[in-house]
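Table 4 source record.
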Amino acid sequence: LPAGALFPRAAWMRSATRALAELPDADLGYGDPAGHPRLRDELSAYLGRVRALIAPPERIVVVNGFAQASRLVADVLTARGIRRLGVEDPGSAGLRDQLTQAGMTCLPVPVDGDGVRIDALARSGVQAVVVTPAHQFPTGVVLSPDRRHALLRWARDTGGLVLEDDYDAEFRYDRTPVGALQGLGPDAVAYGGSVSKTLAPALRIGWLVLPERLVPAVTDAKYATDLATGILEQATLADFLACGEMDHHIRRMATRYRTRRDSLVTAIATHLPDWTVTGTSAGLHLVARPPPGFDEVALAALAQRCGLDARPLSQYAIFELDRTGLVIGYGHRRPDALTNAVTELARHALRPGPDR
């Protein structure tokens, strides 16, 4: 989760006030199911500049977060007879549940140090796949350049669709930002993003940038689901983007999150020196791997009691993993709280007993 205490309340309120004052009376109806034109224009410019997308406004559909984005795409695919979809393993269990409820059969595609394995994807026989190429969830690996090109070749050769979840790519710390996959293959990739990590999940605003052939069907599915995303929220976000507040907020938060990440990594290196840490270059979480001999589930429960937002890595896997680990979120914890929690975890975890 992002740091709720650092949500830019004053700036968001200013944007909301301006948006409401300037909104024409005619815009207070149900609105375009694809999204308010001003927001689509602002998203087009922002995503092209920040994430290197090819995103003309007419290819953008505004949605209520990535959960709805993935469900709308799944509904369109199942209506066209496509019911088998590849998902990263390990990957988001919540996403798998949503897709299953939409009538999809989710087939696991393994992830290694270079990201999702395209050879396994090709053998699976699926016609669509969901990926997190910029910062894989939960491992944190970045899809390598060779894999990116191989994935797009797979899509072109099979007529398949790639659904790109770009869930926390704005926050990068130790490497040059990686552009979105969609910018390399806009006709093969349906790109999904939201403000859930950059601002707050409570806002329930996201977007899809779609291949042209999918825009009418996804727009119709959005209309059938809830008519349209809230107009006032869309207008507020459009103003927030236009006046530069989003850029300012992301720069500010990247500095804060880097400090929190550094505190967590330093604490683990100091107090748990036998552990290894991966997935630290971006996002709001990392993976901490203990040496062999620990019960992962018990260790995660202990870490939670000590004050860490920790989950066992196996919780996200379909097939058994070869190594245990903890997925630890740090975005909504203060640096001192992270240090204290790791210190407490080390005090218990290094002691023989049932928590080990």
